[in-house]
Design a protein that fits this description.
Elements lengths: L5 E6 L5 H9 L3 E6 L5 H7 L3 E4 L7 H5 L7 E6 L8 H5 L9 H13 L3 E6 L11 H11 L3 E8 L10 E8 L19 H5 L24 H9 L6 H4 L56 H7 L17 H10 L3 H17 L3
Parallel strand pairs: 1-2, 1-4, 2-3, 4-5
Antiparallel strand pairs: 5-7, 6-7
Helix pairs in contact: 1-12, 5-6
């Protein structure tokens, strides 16, 4: 395989989780596009690709095609944000059509650019065609354009991600049938929270590591410290807290269903899915297994399978905690990006490309 004759462009690239994984696999990612300009530093600092601040809705095929110049194989990848299909909005039936238009924009660019291979990673709720036809439309469009299409609901620990995350991965090729590679891990050797972050230095809530400023934890109130001290790993406030520590929302029926909030992770299990609020204990089971704090930005990044030395800001002074937490939560886990890359390479190698 001639790496330089194969070029990849990453739409909705964010801080480069997918790009990084594809490059780890050996693919030549040359450019990434995203509407959030705050992602530029992390994307370019950690990856051998250029970042372009652009809303994909207004992106033209001409702008993308210039990055495929002199390539023999064109690969277009991306994770189109589908906020209405997030777990919360999905339960609330908040599926406004304008919120998933980005997947249709992805389909538009595929039709205009005519890449040889396409990959799309997204939330599993897209598979419920009864809620909205957007994914079915996406697949149908690809098939009508002559692509061989496959898609699979992937459990991230099966591919080495220390996180109970389910993602939908689609692969499409103009050449032949294509599919994701077999699982690399089983329950016997899943990567655990301990494996992933157990070696990081001790940190107090509100503290910053003296060497790695991304190993930074949110400051907690005295009341939340009391709550965490009583919280057992993997348990729930329903069983661990005294009555005086309960929040108002816990006392109503709807609040009782959120048993994992303010909870601690378990060392020898996988973490919950990282979200844009994963460094705050009030948004899920994001408490450290032992220390009385939420997980740090670095720990969240590692649980997303980012390399230990991935850079998110130029300095301690320029790092904005909420911005970086959002970037990490929105990212494609690089380990899944690598799996996508290896699947594409296996496909091309089989065809002698």
């Amino acid at each position: 395989m001639n790496k330089h004759k194969i070029k990849v462009v990453d739409l909705f690239c964010g801080i480069g989780g997918l790009t990084n994984g594809l490059q780890q696999a050996g693919l030549n990612v040359v450019a990434g596009f995203d509407f959030d300009k705050s992602c530029k530093f992390a994307y370019e600092e950690n990856n051998s690709a250029l970042f372009f601040h652009k809303d994909v809705s207004s992106l033209s095929s001409i702008e993308v095609n210039k990055h495929f110049k002199n390539s023999e194989v064109k690969i277009l990848v991306g994770c189109a944000p589908c906020q209405p299909f997030s777990s919360y909005n999905y339960k609330q039936n908040s599926l406004e059509e304008n919120k998933w238009k980005l997947l249709y924009e992805f389909a538009r660019l595929i039709q205009e650019i005519n890449p040889d291979i396409v990959s799309m990673e997204n939330v599993p709720q897209l598979l419920n065609f009864k809620k909205a036809p957007v994914f079915q439309d996406f697949v149908t469009n690809l098939q009508e354009l002559g692509y061989y299409v496959s898609y699979k609901l992937v459990f991230a620990p099966d591919y080495g991600v220390p996180q109970k995350r389910k993602r939908l991965i689609l692969l499409a090729s103009k050449f032949d049938n294509i599919g994701i590679i077999s699982s690399t891990h089983t329950r016997d050797n899943y990567v655990t929270v301990r494996n992933a972050i157990g070696m990081l230095p001790h940190l107090e809530h509100g503290g910053v590591d003296s060497i790695d400023f991304v190993h930074k934890a949110s400051k907690l109130s005295d009341l939340n410290i009391q709550r965490l001290k009583l919280s057992k790993p993997g348990s729930s406030w329903k069983y661990d807290w005294s009555e005086d520590l309960l929040l108002k929302c816990h006392r109503i029926d709807s609040g009782k269903t959120y048993g994992s909030v303010y909870g601690r992770m378990k060392w020898d299990d996988q973490s919950p899915t990282m979200t844009t609020f994963c460094t705050g204990i009030g948004n899920g089971r994001f408490g450290h297994p032992e220390q009385n704090r939420a997980i740090s930005l670095r720990e969240a990044a590692i649980l997303q399978s980012f390399p230990m030395d991935y850079k998110f800001a130029e300095s301690k002074e320029t790092l904005k905690h909420s911005t970086v937490a959002k970037q990490i939560g929105n990212a494609v886990p690089p380990a899944l990006g690598k799996v996508i890359g290896l699947s594409i390479i296996e496909h091309l190698s089989r065809l002698g490309k």
